[in-house]
Design brief:
Elements (H helix, E strand, L loop, with lengths): L6 E7 L2 E6 L2 E6 H4 L1 H5 L2 H5 L2 E2 L5 E4 L4 E4 H5 L7 H9 L1
Antiparallel strand pairs: 1-2, 2-3, 4-5, 5-6
């Protein structure tokens, strides 16, 4: 199965999450993306699973899920052919 994103590394430093995805490192402020991760212990933060599809990250100990597309600000649009069908109807 092809993966939407290639997550190589995930770590935390104080109230920031460092994520290496698709060859680039991104830093996120936990206050802005996840109150649950902000309040989580080190063990809870470091117990995570990347979905096989590469679309999300799940932290089972705190029942938190984050979309990688959402974190990166990726927007998906239907192919141009679907847009023209919608305009015609």
């Amino acid at each position: 199965m092809d993966s939407a994103h290639d997550v190589k590394k995930l770590s935390f430093e104080n109230d920031r999450m460092h994520l290496e995805v698709d060859g680039e490192e991104h830093v996120f402020d936990l206050r802005e993306i996840s109150p649950r991760l902000l309040e989580a212990s080190s063990e809870e933060r470091l117990t995570y699973e990347v979905s096989p599809s590469g679309y999300g990250i799940h932290w089972p100990l705190i029942d938190e899920d984050l979309s990688i597309d959402g974190l990166l600000g990726v927007e998906h649009r239907p192919p141009e052919s679907e847009l023209s069908i919608r305009r015609d109807t």
